[in-house]
Amino acid sequence: MKVELFIPCFIDQLYPDTAFNTIKLLEKVGCEVIYNPAQTCCGQPAFNAGFWDDAKAIGNKFLNDFTDQHFIVSPSASCTGMVKNYYNDLFTNTAVHNKCRSIQNHIHELSDFLVNVMEQDYFGAELEGKAVYHDSCSALRECKIKAEPRKLLEKVHGLELLELPDSDTCCGFGGTFAVKFDAISTATA
Predict the structure, then answer these.
(1) Residue 16 belongs to domain spanning
(2) How many Cα atoms sit within 13 Å of 84 on the Cβ side?
(3) CA spacing 20 to 30 A to 9: which of 16, 49, 107, 172?
(4) Residues 81 and 8 in one domain
(5) Sign of the four-CA dihedral 89, 148, 186, 13
(6) Number of domains making up the chain
(7) Which residues 6+ apart lie within 8 Å of 161 measured at CB?
C-alpha cells in the first residue's frame, strides 16, 4: 500500500527523528512511503491565531501538496485534526471543496492508521519500566483517538502501562493558547 507522509512543520524543525521513525513504522507494516519535500504546514498556527486568510493560503498549498489517491499519515493529531475538522471553515463552497473533502477522508494520525487501517499493534518494542499515557486534546477531541495509543503501548515488552486518573483532562498547553494566554495555561497545568 502506498501512503503519503505528512510531516508537520514543528516536527520537521524540532523533532526530525520522529519523521524518520514514522517512516520506519510505516515500512514495517508494508507501506510504500511517498514524501513530498515541498510540503510545509497545515496552516493551524495561523488559523488558531485568527489569521484565516493566511491559513487558507497555507491550506491551499497543503491541498496541492497531497493527493486523494492514497492514505495520508501524520504523526501529529493536532495537524490531522486541523485538516479533518477546520478545513471546512476555510474551504466549504470553494473551488477546492471536493478535493478538500476527499483529503479529509484520507488523512489519519499515525496510531489511528496503524491500529485501525493496517490492523497492526505489535512492533517488537521493548522497554522495562512503568508509564502513563496522557491523552492529547487534539487526538481525543478532534480525531476521536483514545484506545489506539494504549493498544500500541500495551504491546511493548517489559512496559507496565498504568492508567492516569483524569488522563483526558486538559494539561493547559494548547500550542498558541499557551503563548497568548500564558496565565490561564499555567493555572490549568
Answers:
(1) 2-116
(2) 20
(3) 172
(4) yes
(5) negative
(6) 2
(7) 130, 131, 132, 133, 150, 153, 154
